[in-house]
Amino acid sequence: MTDAPVISALPAVAHSPARLALRRLLRHRSFRIGVILLLVLILAAVLAPWISNGKPNATSVRVRFTPPSWDYPFGTDNFGRDIWTRVLYGAQVSLWIGLTVAILSAIFGAIIGVCAAWFRRLDSLLMRVMDALMAFPAILLAMGVSAVLGPHISSVIIALTSAYIPRCARIVRASALVIREQDYVEAARIAGGSDLRIILRHILPNCLAPLLVTLTFIFAYAILAEATLSFLGIGTPPPHASWGNIVAQGRDFAIEAWWIMLFPGLAISIAALAINLLGDGLRDVLDPRLKIEG
Amino acid sequence: MTWLILRRIAQAVPVMLIVAILTFLLMKMLPGDPAILLAGEGADPDKIEALRRSLGLDRPLLVQLGYWLLNLVQFDFGISPFLNQPVSEAILERIPVTLSVAVVAFVMTLPVGIAMGVVAAYWRDSWIDTTVMSLALAGVSVPNFWLAILAVILFSVTLGWLPSAGYVPMREGFFPWLHALIMPAAVLALFQIGYLARMTRSEMLEVLDQDYVRTARAKGVTEVRTVSKHAFRNALVSVLTVSGYIFSLLVGGSVVIEQIFALPGIGRLLVQAIMARDIVVVQGSMLFLGFLFVAINVLVDILYTIADPRVNYD
Amino acid sequence: MSDTVLQVRDLAVSFRTDRGWVPSVDSVNFALKGREALGIVGESGSGKSVTALSLLRLHDPRNTAITGEVLWQKRDILAMGTRDLQRLRGREIAMVFQDPIHTLNPVLTIADQIGESLRIHQGLTGKAARRRAIELLDQVRIPDAARRVDDYPHRLSGGQRQRVMIAIAIACQPKLLIADEPTTALDVTVQAQIMELLRQLRQDLGMAVILISHDLGLVSEFADRVMVMYAGQPVELSPAEPLFERPLHPYSEGLLAAIPDLDSDLDRLPTIPGAIPEPTRRPPGCRFAPRCSYALESCRSQALPMLVAADGRAARCTRHIPERQVSDV
């Protein structure tokens, strides 16, 4: 009698974790919706020069306050500027700032988080500073930094990045602390691996999943925060078209010329929605336990 | 337990110190000479020099920092040349407005956000879950300044139900006060409601899978009590942790909302000061808010200690 | 022995997974008399816990399908309304679970968790419930019960927590106690104490008990009858003593051979090579055939019902019961 199990007759399916995650992501409903919406927005931003009605700041007194029409799909503002064009160019600014802030926060946050977890003597100081920064809601911290640096796109980026670095640093530190206690890290250390090598080969790759999820949500928050700063007049300065400052401009005419503020506001909402959906998908698949504080 | 609370308060001191130092350094990064800025362009050089001396700007940075911290301990945030008023006084005048907005929004956020999260988790993957979570997602995606404008158009201009701007102090009656705050607070609350609903849902999903929930069912406990007592009490610990954080965000968000509804709170003070480059006020109100947030965190940690019996264990 | 209190007929359980409905347990048939102790034995994956939880419908109803009949004193638990079910749970049938670390609610006091059953089923509140809770803690031999009653579970050791679980279960003097691996998570000395406690309580309270365990040795010392399960089906149902002396199913034989490792946590049996097939990959014939050293060609192709021997013992194997006869146990 042989005792070969019957099971082996069935082919074993082997997949790498990354491919498995990708497959689960592509099956995730909200992830798919988010990706499609975001791609449409990115495409609109990139193609702005070709699908818009000319320059975003071109004024034309004759067509002031034109309601949405075939020629001006989103209408025009008090200077006769085409809102459709401004929203498209605004997409460039908003998406660019959002993505830059998210990536920079992740990079600096990862460096600080790993340093805090790896060099234990730095931990307490670094994390107290992060606590102090975290004490402020992001929007307030960004307002303070932006107030000091003056109204430039770069100061908005610096302001928001400094607000979101602590969130990334905390997430990375928490993961890194767990990983540094793993046997394989201990083994690498005994084998004489340098700190940098161990961090790059073992610690960082294992922090990537939670960091990626965090980064995605920061992308969404940053778009909202940039719009808020610009709305308050301390973000992207006019005449650069940004979704936030178009709404601010349209606010005075919100009743007579509702289209000026309506469409940029919708654009902000859709962008944030798309990225949040994408983030939900990433979180469900990569790191369901993760909690993120915006 | 008392020991734990005292320790937590002690831990907050260095964080507050760092907040103070960071605020100080931030303002030192300001381009240009603050004395000239305060005295106004083209002012008399003697006057600028006098101002510089009176502000202590001629002394080394560390000495300045020392004096500054010393003043802070005495709740002295300096005097604003624009308001012609001590900053601490200006803040104390305005803080009730900001706190009123935040508190009303907070009172709306907690029950609604928690209820949405619990309901969605209990009926997970059903149409109820999808509907509730879509609303929550909309809440965290729609910018509140934009929503505020739409709300004003609908409730003030079109329906005429609520005032579009202005604040009524509580001493003129609770209901007039509430009437003035309800729209700003509701707009402010929507984002946090969405956030809290999403958080509560994921927390509840985890708790509902725990063995002790099955134990409760095996005892014959009704579904309502299983969820509200056995499951929710456990989720409450995390909900409590974020609730302090939510309150901080509501105070922060109030800064924006005050602009739209013309509410004379700290946010309005801060934005006006930024516009006028009144650094004394910017510095003072940032610092005050920073201290407030640290204090809220301490309070939440203490509540957390009381809510979760496991924390006492040592 | 008194009359039959529980009669399980053709119980089958399926779970919904990513890949559709997967059958977990099927063809479970047994009866239990009042005060009787039945042991259900098998490796992990045999379906014994799934069966136990189905008796009180404790699986998540949204992704579980249970068919068949579970007749408790002539009423079908599977067809009961929610209200009736809640009235039954904890009062007539109570349950003790495997891992006492996670089965007690960490944020409620012991008084609260014991008192809850008393309040629901006996209307006891306040002081009366508390007094009864202390009595129950005494009964499960927790020292210093009057003080312990106000503690939170994290203050207690694993063994003590299991005693508290048992106190909760017996609070309303149930007629049937289902104990699902009650000692698996505990260390050996505590294990023996808990089993002794269960034996004592069974006698004092006159309960019927269903004891689920992977440990045939433990079960045989406790139970009057034993049901051995394999890959989602009962494969042998027999009084405890003869099962020990002469197992009818080769799987029971393997389990018996594994008994010396009383304190080992091994889920796999060293005496039987291989492992239980996953529910989606069960062989067409006898499910044990791939691991069976006696398997014949016919075993691999043809599934058997339970066969009843002349002495009333039943097994899903023709090796010792050559005469084919469908069981109606």
Automatic annotation (TrEMBL), chain A:
GO terms for cellular component: plasma membrane. GO terms for biological process: peptide transport; protein transport; transmembrane transport. Residues 95-279 form the ABC transmembrane type-1 domain. Pfam families: BPD_transp_1, OppC_N. SUPFAM superfamilies: MetI-like (SSF161098). The keyword Transmembrane applies. Gene3D superfamilies: MetI-like. It is found in: Cell membrane. Keywords: Cell membrane, Membrane, Peptide transport, Protein transport, Transmembrane, Transmembrane helix, Transport. CDD domains: TM_PBP2. Its main location: membrane. The chain crosses the membrane at residues 31-51, 95-118, 149-165, 203-224, 257-279. It is a multi-pass membrane protein. PROSITE patterns: ABC_TM1 (PS50928). Belongs to the binding-protein-dependent transport system permease family. This is ABC transporter permease. It comes from Falsigemmobacter faecalis.
TrEMBL record, chain B:
Keywords: Cell membrane, Membrane, Transmembrane, Transmembrane helix, Transport. Its main location: membrane. It is a multi-pass membrane protein. It is found in: Cell membrane. Residues 95-304 form the ABC transmembrane type-1 domain. InterPro entries: BPD_transp_1_N (IPR045621), MetI-like (IPR000515), MetI-like_sf (IPR035906). Pfam families: BPD_transp_1, BPD_transp_1_N. SUPFAM superfamilies: MetI-like. One of its GO terms (cellular component) is plasma membrane. The chain crosses the membrane at residues 12-30, 95-123, 143-162, 174-197, 245-266, 287-307. GO terms for molecular function: dipeptide transmembrane transporter activity. The keyword Cell membrane applies. PANTHER family: DIPEPTIDE TRANSPORT SYSTEM PERMEASE PROTEIN DPPB-RELATED. Belongs to the binding-protein-dependent transport system permease family. This is ABC transporter permease. It comes from Falsigemmobacter faecalis.
Automatic annotation (TrEMBL), chain C:
SMART domains: AAA. Coiled coil: none annotated. Residues 6-256 form the ABC transporter domain. Keywords: ATP-binding, Cell membrane, Membrane, Nucleotide-binding, Transport. GO terms for cellular component: plasma membrane. It is found in: Cell inner membrane. Signal peptide: none annotated. Pfam families: ABC_tran, oligo_HPY. InterPro entries: AAA+_ATPase, ABC_Ni/Peptide_Import, ABC_transporter-like_ATP-bd, ABC_transporter-like_CS, Oligopep_ABC_C, P-loop_NTPase. Its main location: membrane. It is a peripheral membrane protein. One of its GO terms (molecular function) is ATP hydrolysis activity. One of its GO terms (biological process) is transmembrane transport. Belongs to the ABC transporter superfamily. This is ABC transporter ATP-binding protein. It comes from Falsigemmobacter faecalis.
